[in-house]
Every structure is written in C-alpha cells, then in structure tokens.
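Structural prep section.
Before we set up the soaks we want a predicted structure of the protein with flavin mononucleotide in place, mainly to decide which crystallisation condition to try first. Input record follows.
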Amino acid sequence: MTHPIIEDLTSRHTVKKYDASRKVAQADLDVLFEAMRLSASSINSQPWKFIVIESDAAKQRLNKTFATMHEYNKKHVFDSSQVILFAHNPKYTRDDYAKVVDKGIEDKRTPIENRDAAFGVYLFAELNTGEDGDTSTWTKAQTYLALGNTLHVLARLKIDSTPMEGIDITLVNEEFSQELEGYQCDVAIAIGYHHPEDDFNAKLPKSRLALRDVLVRI
Ligand SMILES: Cc1cc2nc3c(=O)[nH]c(=O)nc-3n(C[C@H](O)[C@H](O)[C@H](O)COP(=O)(O)O)c2cc1C
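Run finished without errors. Recording the tokens verbatim:
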C-alpha cells in the first residue's frame, strides 16, 4: 500500500542505538511540542505533563535512575537528543477540570454563561475516580494517547525515537519529583537520530500481526 501515512508508520522504528553527534533542530522541537499539546483526551481533560530532559545536568540526573534496572535503555540518555517523560495526574479533580473549562472560555469555545453546564461532562472523570480519589487508570490512558500521537508526529518529522517503559519508575519519580509536581511518570521517549551502523533495529523489516487477526468488520 502506498500512502504518506503508511510510509510514516512503516519507516519509523524503535531505535536501539543513537548517533550522539546529531541533535534535533529547534524548529522541529517547536512542531513536536505543539503537536503534543494538541493531543486529544477524554473530555479534553489533558491530565498530563511532559518533562523534556535535554540539559547535561538533567541528563546526569536521568542517568542515575538506570543504576539497578533497564540498563539496555541507559545509553539513550546521552546519545539521544532529548528524553521526554510522559506523566499523568494520578488524582485528577474538579479543580483540574476547571482550568480546562476556563481555557475553553478564554479560547472562545465556551460562552461564559455556559460555564456551569460545561462541568456536565466531568461525570466521565467521576466515573473513573476511585474511593480515594485515584484516577490513574483513566489519566494514564489519556497520556498514552499523547504518546501515540507523539510517535506518529516524530515519524512525520523524520525524527527517530524509542518509547521506553524500561525505566525505573520509582527512581525516575523520586529524582524528578520537583518537576513532576505530584504527577506520575510511567513511560518516557528518547528522540534523536539512529546510529547509521550500530542500530540493529533500523535494518530489520517491520513486523505486525495480520490485519485479519486484529480487525473485525461487521
Ligand atoms: C509503551 C511502549 C514501551 C516500550 N518500551 C520499550 C523499551 O523500554 N525499550 C525498547 O527498546 N523498546 C521499547 N518499546 C518498543 C517496542 O518494543 C516496539 O515499539 C515494538 O517492538 C514494535 O517495533 P517498532 O517500534 O520498531 O515498530 C516500547 C514501545 C511502547 C509503545
């Protein structure tokens, strides 16, 4: 099949070794960050925070978190251009949704007289809130949507990447607790350009289950 979308998705791959001499241009980062901001989420909740690790000092801090686990991803810390932590709000509240509603008014999407009515859909959040105020399952799912969007945008920009659940989430959340402000990071993504010789995954053919195994038309 020939189509630009299919070309994006077949040409991207998970990088196993980066070319440390190549970094992502600011103009591409601007597009990427804006695309991340535009990600869709249930009731437009946007229960996420993205921490971009790019300074040497921040990379040193991230490097420390690979002390005991997931050593295979450690080399990406310095070889990649940026590592972005994807974090979700584990206790999303009505006050968090009020920020979304008020931004909708500011953006002229919601007339001010409809402010109270705009909270009607907050029911979705309530249905996904545990006794103790835990919204993790729901907010984490939204954050993975942003991750998926990010993967495709990176492919479009011809920037390589490595989504990483292979991070020590205890150490990452401790190390970056100040920046995370109570949000929980369970997944990160390294971005940059793959090493021309040493990235074995760049040379492998794409492999996915057959469409008939994953899609049912009724
Ligand atoms: C949420 C998520 C977490 C992943 N974690 C890792 C990881 O920690 N390290 C790694 O090398 N690849 C990781 N991967 C990459 C997958 O193994 C990869 O996407 C899959 O095998 C398909 O290969 P492709 O991305 O090259 O098409 C992850 C992918 C996703 C979507």
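Observations: The mean pLDDT is 97.
Flagged for discussion at group meeting.
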